[in-house]
Each structure stands twice: as structure tokens, then as C-alpha cells.
Amino acid sequence: MLKLLRDGAGALGLTLDDAQLAAFGRCCDLLLEKNAVMNLTAITEPAEVARLHFLDSLALLRLADFRGKRVVDVGCGAGFPGVPLLIGEPSIRLSLLDSTAKRMQWLSDELLPALGLEAECLTGRAEELIEGRRETYDLCVSRAVARLNVLCELCLPYVKVGGSFLAMKGAAAEDEAQEAGPAIRTLGGSVREMAEYSVGDAVHRVVIIDKIRPTPAKYPRRFAKIKQQPL
Fold first, then answer.
1. What average pLDDT does the chain have?
2. Model's pTM, two decimal places?
3. How far is CA 69 from CA 73, 91, 92, 94, 108, in A?
């Protein structure tokens, strides 16, 4: 697995030192060990964890300058993409946000301490935790499964003007970006580019949205309203 990681990172234009590779190895072991008793991931082969979780997350380091930036990972689940980003670029000031308390407790009490990493762990819904954090982050990242118009209302309010939101999406990225155009403009964003990168034989896409003006204070709305009447 470690050779796959080293080679895969090299293919992405990134370099991982021995300490970083060891951290990824430990992270994989802890993830799969905990997955036996808690639903963290459907991916259970170490090589696939390296490819589909670690390298997929690390690819974001090619798409924006994360050095020293304040970053929030919305809907982080078992810590992706945030934890691999922190291993790959330790200067990040990271906040991990998810509504599932058990996962967040595992991250804060077990995984992060075992890896010698520090990150803020926020348990709750994104639209409810915005108070006191509105427009305070340089970068927001998310691999959450919500459609982009919904995801933007949850994420863009966290991004300061001049910052960016990197939304990790699949094959439907272009269609979702077109659908989300009115929402992005309403929330103060502008699509910079649709970036593509390859991990093995798979092509992945990231919609990069720059924050060009403040998000109106009425957003994000309550989630029931967001689902009923998406922007």
C-alpha cells in the first residue's frame, strides 16, 4: 500500500516523506480496525483505501494553495478529504464538521491523537454551526453526496471573500454545476474551473468556486427548507 501511495502521489505531482507515508499506513490500519465495529467506509482493502480515500483527497493539494490556510471539511464522514490533506500539508488549520457524533468522537479521541495531528472537530449540521464561523475560512472542501446546489448553500457561507470552495464530484459534475449556477451566484460565488485529475484509471472532477462577495445573512436556511426549495 505504501508503494502505491508514494507512486500515486508522484503521479499527482506530490511528494510524501517517510513520516507521512507511515501516518497514512497507521491511518489505514485504524480506519479498517474501527470499521469492523462502526460503519466508516465500504472500502475494506488497503490498496483501495489508498487509492479511493487517500490519493483522491491528496489531489486537492494540486488545485489550491493550502499552506497555512484555515480549512473546513463539511460532511467529513470518516475524515475525508480533511485528514489526508492535513497529513499531506501539516500547516493547515483544519476544522472537521459532520453531524454523526460517533464518527466525530472517533476522529477527535482516537484517530487524530494516534496520528499526532490536531484539528477542530465540530459535531452538528453545517447550517446550524455557522454562527460564529461565517466567512472565516480560506478554503472549504467537501466530498459530501448532496447535489451541488444544496451543498453550496451549506458550504459557501463558511468561506471568506477571496477564498474558495472545492466540491469533489463525479461524472455529473458539469451538469450539477450548471444546475447550481443560480445558487452559486446568489450565495456570492463564481465557478472558476472544473478541474480533472486521475487516480489510477479513474477520472475525478472538482468544481472550484471562488467567493467573490459576501453571502446574504439569510443563508444557509434550515435544512428542511433547503431540501424543499433548493436555490
1. 95
2. 0.96
3. 13, 7, 5, 8, 20
